[in-house]
Amino acid sequence: MTQTLASTMPEPSSHPPSPRRAATTPMTVGSGSASGLVITIDGPAGTGKSSVARLLARRLGLDFLDTGAMYRAASVVVLDAKIDVADQQRVVAAVRGADIRFDWTADPPSILAAGRCVADRIRGHDVTAIVSGVAAIGSLREVLVAQQRAIAAAHPRLVTEGRDQGSVVFPDAKVKIYLDASPLIRAQRRAAQLAEQGVAADVPTLEAEIARRDKLDSTRAVGPLVCPTDAVRLDTSVLNRDQVVDELERIVLSRLVAASTGASSASPPTPPIPSGPER
Ligand code: DC
């Protein structure tokens, strides 16, 4: 990495610096402006998005927003209130009332619903079983999208990860990335995770399930999973986690340098591998 980043961006003043700001790499590209720096990372499940987005944020000294955790926290609210997901009005009222937010003084920031930390609940099977139905409710998405934008206003140096961050929530983000991997690779990764938990899983079955969820995610009416036209698409199929983070850092620096020098080509650097087949 030959570029050095020059930090010209203002620190947000309304919040204390989060622990991750003490990251080792100083953020110094002159890409910053008063509007801050938002980096969006979208893509389907199983691409390792969350962990690499978190590591990238740490490396660059930016805050990290896990928007999937917000939809999961909304699902905890729905479960605790025993609301039928089909009763959209009640779902939205309950989630609005729960005021889903993060405690930014914790590292990583903990997710709160109705003032209580639900971080230990959001990965539960009960939540995973209903979250895609909850996330498909348009009026609920409006509530959480507004909250995500408010978070970015308070934390303007942000890596945000989800399905719709570059396409819907932050269309003006300075850097947009779309992570992908073939359904087979994602199924194999999931099977390996399950094996670690002592659960046997059949890869072809998992692959079929992943393909089904991709279709649901990408065809839903509101906030569908799409690769924004101005995003850099990175296929992680043959990369390990560190290689993905290295590549993401390279993409971000390259984009920011291009933006700060007014270079006409804001296109990504040579991709390390070809993208997987389009689904
Ligand atoms: O990334 P995850 O598995 O934690 O996401 C949980 C669910 O929320 C999943 O069904 C996709 C959905 N989601 C979404 O619709 N939009 C986002 N920005 C983030 C997650």
Commentary on this structure:
This protein has 279 residues and is an alpha/beta fold. It has a single domain (35-256), classed as P-loop containing nucleotide triphosphate hydrolases (Rossmann fold). The chain has 9 helices and 8 strands. The chain has helices spanning 49-60, 67-80, 88-98, 125-135, 138-154, 165-169, 183-196, 203-219, 241-261; strands at residues 37-42, 63-66, 101-103, 110-113, 116-117, 157-162, 175-180, 232-235. The strands form 2 sheets. A 5-stranded parallel β-sheet has the order 2-6-1-7-8, sandwiched between helices. A hairpin with a 6-residue loop joins β3 (101-103) and β4 (110-113). α1 crosses α9 (241-261), α2 packs across α4 and α7 (183-196) packs across α8 (203-219). The longest helix is centred in the last third of the chain and has 21 residues, at 241-261. The chain is globular. The structure holds 2'-deoxycytidine-5'-monophosphate (DC). The site of 2'-deoxycytidine-5'-monophosphate has 12 residues, from α2 and α4.
